[in-house]
Specification:
- With 221 residues, this protein is of the alpha/beta class.
- The chain has a single domain, classed as Glucose Oxidase, domain 1, CATH 3.50.30.
- The protein is 11% helix and 25% strand.
- The protein contains four helices and 13 strands.
- Strands 1-13-11-5-7-9-10-4-12 form a nine-stranded mixed sheet, with no helix packed on it.
- Helix 3 packs parallel to helix 4.
- It is globular and about 60 Å long.
């Protein structure tokens, strides 16, 4: 029997959001006591919690969520663990040299999930400010390999390289789906099936997702 591993952080009222993004509100709209039914009102940004970026997030003419083929969000994936048994230190730069031993995972069209251990800081402000970060050279190294999806346990690929990192990964002809804010990557084996569909938001830039791994082998040692 396959194992299902939840790779998503739960969404909660007043949860921290990326600085400058909308606050998340998850509040009762109707209740059993008053209305005989429960209905919840939700307000949040498209990049809240575990989410993915479409190229439109940084490019006015980039692909929107509804223009990305559905098979990009589902299929075989590889784990690249950059901190086996632990976690990278805050603000650690992640250069291409850290990925080169795992170069075989970065095949054209592949889904690659890299682990830093940073999900441990999810409920603290430093989660957004002190994360281990791709260098621009690392983003370019990944972009050159034309993978289809890049996932990570950090809220954004880089604080060091900032927007140029996103530009390298999302530009026309590269257009890697970026899955950010993943959890529980320490429970994954090296190979698994990734599932992470966005909401079908027409013409939009990103979406929270329920990311799940379907595993047929035990977690990597």
């Amino acid at each position: 029997m396959p194992r299902f591993i939840d790779l998503s952080h739960p969404l909660e009222n007043a949860q921290l959001s990326y600085p400058g993004d909308p606050e998340i509100r998850v509040t009762p709209f109707r209740t059993m006591k008053a209305h005989g039914v429960n209905v919840t009102e939700i307000a949040m940004g498209t990049h809240q919690g575990t989410h993915l970026d479409a190229p439109f997030h940084f490019f006015a003419d980039g692909l929107t969520l509804d223009q990305i083929p559905l098979d990009r969000f589902f299929g075989p994936a590889r784990l690249v663990d950059l901190a086996p048994g632990g976690a990278l230190e805050p603000k650690t730069p992640i250069p291409p040299e850290m990925f080169e031993p795992h170069a075989d995972a970065f095949e054209p069209g592949a889904r690659v999930i890299f682990r830093t251990g940073w999900d441990r800081a999810f409920d603290r402000l430093e989660y957004f400010t002190d994360l281990p970060s791709l260098t621009l050279e690392a983003a370019q190294w990944i972009a050159q390999r034309r993978i289809g999806l890049l996932g990570m346990d950090t809220p954004t690929p880089s604080k060091i390289a900032g927007r140029p990192c996103h530009y390298a990964l999302l530009e026309r002809g590269v257009e890697i789906v970026l899955v950010e804010g993943l959890a529980n990557l320490d429970k994954l084996p090296r190979r698994f099936t990734f599932v992470g569909f966005p909401l079908n938001l027409k013409g939009r830039d990103g979406s929270p997702i329920r990311a799940v791994a379907i595993c047929d082998e035990p977690a990597a040692e």
